[in-house]
Amino acid sequence: MRERQRERNGNGEARRAGDRVVGPTKLPGSTTDTFLGSNHQDTMTTRSLASSPTRRPSAVGLVTALLLIAAAQICSGAYYGKLIGKLSELHHGVSGEVYAVDARTLFIKDFTYDGEGPAAFFYAGSSKSPGNNGFRVRDERGTTNLLKRYRKKDITLTLPDGKTLNNIKWFSVWCDEFSVNFGDVKIPRGFDYPKPQKLKTLSGIHGVSSEPVVVVDAQTLLIPSFSYDGEAPDAKFWVGTGPTPSSQGIRVPDENGKEQPLRRYDRKTIVLTLPGDLTVHQLGHFGVWCEAFAVDFGHVQLPHSLNVPPSLRMLGVSPQSKLNCEVLEDTLAFEVRWAVAGDSIVVQLVAKLDAGQYMSFGLSADTERSVMVGGDPTVAWVDKQTLQGYAIDYFLDAKSQCSGRRGSCPDSRIQDNTDSVRLLNAAMVNGYSIVTYQRPLKASDELDLPILTNRSQAIIWAIGPLNERQEVSFHSHYLKTDRFIEFGRPPAWNCPMPDQESPDNFKQTASNTQLVTRRPQRVPATPAPASTNDAWEIPPIQCYEPDDGVFYAQMGPTGGKHGYPAITGHVGWGISWYINGLLIPVINVVRGRRYSFVTEGGLDPDIPARYHPFYITDDPIGGYYHKTAEEKAKVKIFAGVRRQRGKVIPTGVGRLCNWVPDENQPPADDFASFGAYQRTLTLECDVGEPGIVEWTPDENTPDTVYYQCFTHRYLGWKINVLDSCDTSEPSPAASEKREMYAEPEQDRQDLEYDASIAVPSKITSDRH
Predict the structure, then answer these.
(1) What CA–CA distance (Å, rounded) separates 583 from 133?
(2) What's the domain range around 252?
(3) Do residues 236 and 172 both lie within one domain?
(4) In 245-293, where does DSSP find H-type helix?
(5) Which residue stretches does the UniProt record annotate as biased composition, category Basic and acidic residues (predicted)?
(6) Residue 29 and residue 141: Cα distance in Å, rounded?
(7) How far apart are CA 413 and CA 540, in angstroms?
(8) What is the count of structural domains for the chain?
(9) Are 168 and 259 in a shared domain?
(10) Residue 516 lies inside a defined structural domain of this protein
(11) Which candidate, 593, 558, 594, 562, places its Cα nearest to that of 578?
């Protein structure tokens, strides 16, 4: 049955109810510091970057892009992965503990070797015991040189392509020349090495949703297809101990390293890095939290003892040690950064560009000379107005602008479906344009050239203006000599180091597990003041009404820019209290008189977005549940709670009733008055019974108190407490049914008032 709590009077009024480089950066198992997610439209302000061209923006985003491609036990407080065992101490002082980081990565804690062996190498194999039939494993620098002397050094090694812990039975320090095992560790059959773990999906209010969240490593979360409507004023990514979010949690910087309120996301895959040395092993949940209003927009629980890889930072490995970088043009800070990932390559271009300029990088048609004509570059730029990024696959038919299908043209202008470049991310960082893209190693069509990983090849690059069609014009800066890059070389960072904190600063200690309680203290978030212009006039509830002193407290929309924010001067987050059908009216009460509040704000604490216990307090903010002990000590509660064993338990709970706008009507901002907007609302109630809060203000009650939500901030408004009431105004009897409405302001006459009234409403199915 659908009936509106909008009974009309005879006039149809709603009633008031209520960059040669010698030299694969293969993706070493799990690469785990962030680089940048997919394209975004915000200027990054993550770290302080010097204006000098020798100080470059961080490559942190490239690693994240690799995560997006690659990612489809705690020991004495430090986590290095899963312990395989200790190296047997056979010869030349070999010792150390070997951990599995992931399927292809080993970490050796306190590795020791005297360096005196004639031809020692790291070896692994699938035979029953170490032997010459194994294969060499590159050292921590990516070389297969003879092992030098080590003394209690922590090192990270990566198995060759095609080799994982699934198909080896031993790891050894092996002497090639004399076929001697200096020390080894056996890999147990069926060894469960750390790997990324899938959790549940995010689902909540404000359009928060995602595919299953992936814990990539102990400090990295991958959120595929993340959506959020961007409408709330202070939403943040959030983690904390325990199964559910609270105000005592910790902010997680977004995919660009910022802690600003989240913007709108539409099915974007993002990678987040936990702050500092925090790890998932210390946490119980991850989600989206509205900090200023203490609202859970959706979260997932983080199981204890997740068998996931440690992050590179936890192993003392910098992201740059796993990536390549070359300077192409120093005066413009033009760099190319890359890493080979399977059968594709992820490339990041960074440069100081003027507005309307592009940067391009790619392959020469002649592998032995750098020549433009016939080249296969990617042209990239960031629009400085919109911050939209672009990465376009080009073919250089001639040294001219594209005309028809001739000249320097996008592949797609020459032949359909030939753009082999996928934009992963674009950003502006302190004047630097940063574009990250992916392309296959092999040529995808006749307009592409292959990227070689077993030898060097000639490259080309240019910088110049875009024309009115947003296509390349003749370059103003370009490569004037032959230059070569070996894309498949071991990682080598030949660029200025980014201006950021070194991961080597990460030191693991037993006390790290206490980081959650040692987080920096900060002032609780408060939303910025809202404009109070053009506020709707909401008629106050006078001291003489309703006659029986019964108020119905229900939930409803904030009424757009004319409603809650304009009335209170505080930004609303989407819902607020409705009292007797009115949006946060001022209530006038008299000391000594008993009042009853029929509370219909929800009763299931497991669904925070549908749980709004009603209470009366001297606190203009509300949200008592999420306050610190110090904050709680400063406020008083007059009704709506009981104290049990030192805890404050809300009692103003009951079924949820919501005033729901008609989707076929204009948005709230379009209505000149609340009366007109009110008529578009329908009261929908869950099955169940309301709660009752009874309150008698007395001489100790302040002149102004507030009705609020126990679990969320900024949902209620004022109650004026009077010593007496002028009862000369006519007051209808409690049992008398009369029309009660808020009229459009331009037509407003005296309002008629009514006592509390029971009215039909739409009863929804029980969704608890």
Answers:
(1) 79
(2) 197-314
(3) no
(4) none
(5) 1-19, 735-751
(6) 16
(7) 65
(8) 4
(9) no
(10) no
(11) 558
